[in-house]
Amino acid sequence: MRFIVLGAAAGGGFPQWNADSRACRRARAGDPAALPATQAGAAVGVDEGRWLLINASPDLRMQIEATPALHPHDGIRSSPIKAVVLTNADIDAIAGLLHLREGTPFALYGHGRVLRTLGVNPVFEVVDRSVVPRREIEADVTFTPADATGEALGLRITPFLAPGKVPLYQEGEDATDVAARQGDTLGLDITDGRSRIVWLANCALVDEAVRARVEGCDLLCMDGTLWRDDEMVVQGVGRKTGRRMGHVSMSGEQGAMAALEHCRIGRRLFVHVNNTNPALLADSAERAELEERGWRVAHDGLEVRL
What we know:
The protein has 306 residues and is of the alpha/beta class. The protein has helices spanning 22-28, 60-65, 91-94, 112-119, 208-214, 231-234, 242-245, 256-259, 285-292, and strands at residues 2-7, 41-47, 50-54, 81-85, 107-111, 134-137, 156-161, 186-191, 196-200, 219-223, 267-271, 295-297, 303-305.
């Protein structure tokens, strides 16, 4: 399999448009230790010229242009993007679909709850259903992604329910159960029959079910939103903890690094990293710590061949 990180940052990207933190200033100044990053997404494929995208971030057009493998190459109007699978209905995961509205076929996969969210919002009808079929997937049911005509892409994907929450715009006033498993947040277990990639960029809690899912995978792309749970509160840029936002922290006794320490995993990547997270900075103590523990922070354009 060939895997490309299209975007490594959390919502808002890095630097974020309204953020004037020291880290964001360093990124804007071109500091090589503060690499800018677009919002999280990836591409995976086994055949050159046929790609499946994981989510469609608001930065998708920019990400496509920055990735030669995703450029059109078969006629005046064409695309090697043959399918998109959505792991949730957050703005950061679905807004980029609007960049794909110009009538080139691909297949769109999502949990029923996610597809219903698209279905009740008429703006997404610009992605013509007669050209882009919407295909429902179920947790724990393996499917073979195919293009709009039904031709298989050489992958098998098992979606699984991850501890998470509904999108912010769907929360009620008393939304507190952010670790619920309802289909609002999915992880993806992807294989070509030889190697496995697990995508888990949104995860509120690493429990036994999550550990069982990632065990033995060749590449794990893990939620790296925050370094510590109260990070945004301490920095004065928000009132919610990471857990309340549906994101496990990198560090701490219940953080991802500790919780997955004894799992058998090939490569460990953090994705969906927020602009407040000091581990974004290559020269930070936090980056040094996570690398010492066998992790890496993804960057836009990072490619892994398995």
